[in-house]
Design brief:
Blueprint lengths: L3 E9 L3 H4 L32 E5 L4 E10 L3 E8 L3 E12 L2 E12 L2 H12 L1 H17 L1
Antiparallel strand pairs: 1-6, 2-3, 3-4, 4-5, 5-6
InterPro entries: Polyketide_cyclase/dehydratase, START-like_dom_sf
Protein name: Polyketide cyclase
Length: about 140
């Protein structure tokens, strides 16, 4: 079993101040199909460090925690899927003439050998996964 640190970039035609929201728990609802975070304690600012939310799918339940935020430059989330994997997701935004470059870094540790195999598969497709984010965001912004 190996810890995996995966990083890829995408571009968004918005300045970091506007693009930042797209990478928050509530903001991802706008462009990620099926994304429906649940906040056990309601909070007006879903990027405040310490904020917790939950996501569920047919396969797994994940607990998320805002670990750090430097608006509009970066936000980092801790995420734990019990019995499967734990780690962080960090989003770094930098201004460009056309909007923002957004670097997404997943730092994941599998918790079982089966999870390690799944993480290896995820790692192999990570660049395409992030490319799909760019496509989904572009479609959302065009709508």
């Amino acid at each position: 079993m190996n810890r995996r640190v995966l990083s890829a970039a995408l571009t968004v035609p918005l300045p970091p101040e506007a693009a930042f929201r797209l990478f928050t728990a509530r903001g991802e609802r706008d462009w990620v199909p099926g994304w429906d975070p649940v906040f056990p304690v309601e909070t007006p600012d879903d990027t405040e460090p310490g904020t917790v939310w939950l996501t569920s799918s047919d396969e797994e339940d994940t607990t998320w925690l805002v670990a750090a935020r430097d608006f509009p430059h970066s936000v980092s989330y801790a995420r734990i899927t019990p019995g499967v994997r734990a780690g962080t997701v960090t989003v770094d935004l930098s201004a460009t003439e056309a909007g923002s470059t957004v670097r997404v870094t997943y730092d994941m540790t599998p918790l079982t050998s089966a999870a390690a195999e799944a993480l290896d598969e995820f790692a192999a497709g990570f660049p395409s996964f992030i490319d799909s984010w760019a496509e989904l965001i572009a479609a959302h912004l065009a709508a």
